[in-house]
Hints:
The protein is an alpha/beta fold. The protein has helices at 13-26, 53-57, 73-78, 91-109, 112-120, 144-155, 177-187, 207-211, 230-239, 278-295; strands at 5-9, 32-34, 45-49, 64-67, 85-86, 136-140, 159-164, 173-176, 190-193, 218-221, 243-246, 266-268.
Amino acid sequence: xHSPIVFTGRVSDAxxxxxxxxxxxxxxxxxxxxxxxxxxxxxxxxxVANPDPEVLRGLPxxxxxxxxxxxxxxxxxxxxxxxxIVRLIDPELSRVMGEAVLAWTLYLQRDMPVYARQQAxxxxxxxxxxxxxxxxxxxxxxxxxxxxxxxxxxQAGFHVIGxxxxxxxxxxxxxxxxxxxxxxxxxxxxVVSLLPATPETRGLLNAERLNWLPQGAGLINFGRGSVLxxxxxxxxxxxxxxxxxxxVFAREPLEAASPLWDHPGVTVLPHISAPTHVRTAAGVVAxxxxxxxxxxxxxxxxxxxxxx
Length: 308
Ligand code: NAP
């Protein structure tokens, strides 16, 4: 039997129990316990969901943490710079995100926001059909989420282009770096952001860049809220953008006073585009732990300078 692995996070008791059960099932050779039930001296690895950084600082022999979430900006900001952070990379999570991106892209392609508004006004008015092949979808961020989403969109017949920090070999046209953003946005009928929250991506979609989008373009933000300047978005919706589907916000939950809630050009979603699946995530964590125990090799860790 191996030394215990702890789970810690600022989640409900029921969620914590669910994680400990799933991790215990995935790691039958290892006791998995709540942090409060473990000897702090014996803890080398902590599995975390939005943990309290102070609690982790109290573990003298902690070697690395494995987050069960994909976004790690809070851990990057709060945890000691020399503590390796492994984030969740789960094919099931990417699949669910790809499904969400396809669903909401189809929502915009088929003009569903317009028909919902028309129904409320009892208005019978048919709009011309736009085929997926007539629409260019620009995917910002071609990581685990972005690549899967781009694949689903391409399969559905959309013309897909993408943007990342570094060049990529891909079967879509890829734009790279600061100079690649303008040509991508200028041709995107729908732009999908799957970018992480980093110092470089903060406020990236600002007034100037939103203006690069063509007349009638739609926007989907499923990456992180800090990437999009909401004041600039509201102006752009009055000018040339048709609709925005937002699942992530700089502050969550979105405050009740936000103008986004009842804006006719905005769909607000409560951060549900790709929820972590506890069972598959526990399997990913278990595989990573076993590999580390067998070889001493950590899974790919978050780059603390890049921020993702
Ligand atoms: P990832 O594999 O790390 O990919 C991030 C992508 O963004 C990479 O392609 C990276 O470029 C690109 N990128 C980062 N900074 C950039 C910059 N300054 N300029 C251009 N491109 C940049 O991350 P992932 O697993 O795909 O996840 C992406 C984000 O989705 C997460 O960080 C998380 O915040 C969010 N997410 C949201 C939900 C939800 O339910 N809404 C669920 C899961 C994840 P390179 O390839 O060149 O490095």
